[in-house]
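Sample intake sheet
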Amino acid sequence: MHPPRLPSFDPGVTAFVWSLVLAFYAWVFMLAIGVHGGTALVVALVCLFLFFLFIRLYGRNVEE
């Protein structure tokens, strides 16, 4: 008997999760270097959108 397989996720979902993690990292970094909280939030949200587009358009599955 083989172990159960992980469920398949849509590429858009994985792109969103990656972009969310990267935007959170950028937000924390900006706060750590002294950027104002509101500015850091707006820049992180813009980064979230741009990261999502980049990952969704240019990210590929290695198995394809």
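Comment: The CA atoms of residues 23 and 48 lie 5 Å apart. The mean pLDDT is 90.
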